[in-house]
Amino acid sequence: MSARLNFRQIEAFRAVMLTGTTIAAADMLNTTQPSISRSIAQMQAAAKLKLFELDRGRLRPTPEAVMLFEAVQRNFLGLEAVEETVSLLRRAGVGRLRVACTPALGMSVMPAVMAKFKARQPDVHITLRTISSYDVREGLLNGLYDLGITTNSLQLEGAQLQTKVVDQVAAVCVMGRSHPLAGNAHITPRHFQSETLLTLDRADELSDEWRRALAQAKVTPGSVIETTYSATICRLAEVGAGIGVVNPYIASVFSNVLRVVPLKPTIGVKVFVAYPRHVSISALASALITEISDHFKTDTRPPRSGKR
């Protein structure tokens, strides 16, 4: 390449690609048609590439132009995202909040919380990601999220994260409504003897504790189905594939198609909010924590157990 491309040439090229004519491109950029034509000619000379062919009064891009446009668009979209963020920050009372939570809470608790929060903060741009507890932790540590919500404290250990318990309830057993155990007032480890255990396939505080309860009772399930999400456990239980232990938040989502039974011994489930210690928490993140706490204080489902 004998000469470097400049921003004006690239901007003109993008406008022509988007509009199809130099006249429309000039209108788009609030300039003149000769200026656009000159920029395109200079760009073709500098790149030593033919970018357009004239076809019935319109400029038809060559394959090289199409490939170049893809690269230009990626960069322009990134620039537009930066400009959007700057605009959000500039406008009084407006901010951005990045939140990550586990899928179980994303399906059960967080929609109602977000609706209430948005009613109080209508101009806030919110990103809500539903990801694993491990990814919640990694995202917080790497600056991807301002706040994380999870029921798995195993992923929040260490001095890098500040955590707060906002709710505590009792885990439940889920099964199909026609399951032989569906009429029981409560479920104990012995009920899992010869049953198919539905459980999570990765380190999870609740799953690990229930496995320990089974081991202490010397109970061996007939078989095990491991899966990634608590919602999948509920669906498997619904169709009679086995019985599982889940937090009551996700169980409440499927309560119309499942039998949800208390456990003995009781296993507590806590909801944690977490944020990085090395970054000052924003006013919006603090407001969301308050909204989450208030939700649990006023919401009557699922039933509480223990102290909050």
Description:
This protein is an alpha/beta fold and 308 residues long. It has three domains: 7-90, Arc Repressor Mutant, subunit A; 96-168 and 270-298, 3-Layer(aba) Sandwich (D-Maltodextrin-Binding Protein, domain 2); 172-265, D-Maltodextrin-Binding Protein, domain 2 (3-Layer(aba) Sandwich). The protein is built from eleven helices and twelve strands. The chain has helices spanning 7-19, 22-29, 33-47, 63-90, 103-108, 110-120, 133-141, 205-216, 230-238, 248-253, 283-298; strands at 52-55, 58-61, 96-101, 125-130, 147-150, 161-170, 172-176, 196-200, 223-227, 243-246, 258-262, 268-276. The strands form three sheets. A five-stranded mixed β-sheet has the order 4-3-5-12-6, sandwiched between helices. Strand 1 (52-55) and strand 2 (58-61) form a beta hairpin. Helix 1 (7-19) packs across helix 4 (63-90), helix 2 packs across helix 3 (33-47) and helix 6 (110-120) packs across helix 11 (283-298). The longest helix is centred in the N-terminal third of the chain and has 28 residues, at 63-90.
